[in-house]
Amino acid sequence: MSPDSGSAGDPGENPILDDLVQPFILETSGIRGRLVKLGESLDAILGRHDYPRPVATALGELLLLASVLSSMLKFSGVFTLQVKGDGPVNIMVADITSEGELRGYAGFDAGKIAALDAVPPESGGRQSVPALLGKGYLAFTVDQRSDSDRYQGIVELDGESLADCLLHYFRQSEQIQTGLLVTVGQDGEGRWRGGGLGLQHLPDEAKASGQNEDLREEDWRRSMILQASCTEAELLDADLPANDLLFRLFHEEGVRVFERRAIAFGCRCSSRRLEAVLAQMPREEVETLKVDGVVVATCEFCSTDYRYDDAALDRLYE
């Protein structure tokens, strides 16, 4: 990872202004961070489904968390966040490839969602984790494209927000100082936008800096105060460049930025993959899936319909 223009606030030459991950480091403390801005990519994912606002908001936050956390890892493959619960929303999935292709979906009970208590307008439609998901767990998986072992972490849904649940995991399981801030909203034309800010102080990096423990803790507390000063409006502002926001928040910490990474909506479904699955099923079993003489399979991520009439099935089973 090589630096671009150096300190935050410089104009730089990277043309990516939105749908990006901006890595950075606070030079006075060695704390590393990621700023994520999602515009068209988030709107493309949420806009493909007629989700009720609380569901869309929660899925948007999960997509942002996946974008922030995956960018802090070195991997080649797919990073996945999956939430399962016994509440009105029973499942949510967000995954992103090492190339920045992002997708996600949510499963929910429409009747239970409609029965939820109304939330104040200033909440942006955000329901708490206990109200929306109930009891369950959040799992993240790093699936490498090699023979390496797949890494997985699991944590109970213990917190008011999805970010709270993940912070609980990092505190208890990884013992890594982590700060996460995400927000989702719609602009004046109803398009979805989101922003996320993540900070981490890795134990090995903290020791390598030569600072004593008290000083490291002071650095961390100060960085958390600065992170908390970031408003939802700033994270959602399409006209506020990433580097300008980082300079506004952390200029006294000597913030230095690195090469930006693009994020885009991308689904990995294909007719070839689906047909490979169907071909493994007996023809008689596939016939029972017909509706009005056609087998229709819909991708949960992108809502693409794959249709197979008798002629298509004949070709498949040849």
Automatic annotation (TrEMBL):
One of its GO terms (cellular component) is cytoplasm. Gene3D superfamilies: helix hairpin bin, Hsp33 domain, HSP33 redox switch-like. InterPro entries: Heat_shock_Hsp33, Heat_shock_Hsp33_C, Heat_shock_Hsp33_N, Hsp33_helix_hairpin_bin_dom_sf. GO terms for biological process: protein refolding. The lineage of its organism: Bacteria, Pseudomonadati, Pseudomonadota, Alphaproteobacteria, Rhodospirillales. Keywords: Chaperone, Cytoplasm, Disulfide bond, Redox-active center, Zinc. Pfam families: HSP33 (PF01430). This is Molecular chaperone Hsp33. One of its GO terms (molecular function) is protein folding chaperone.
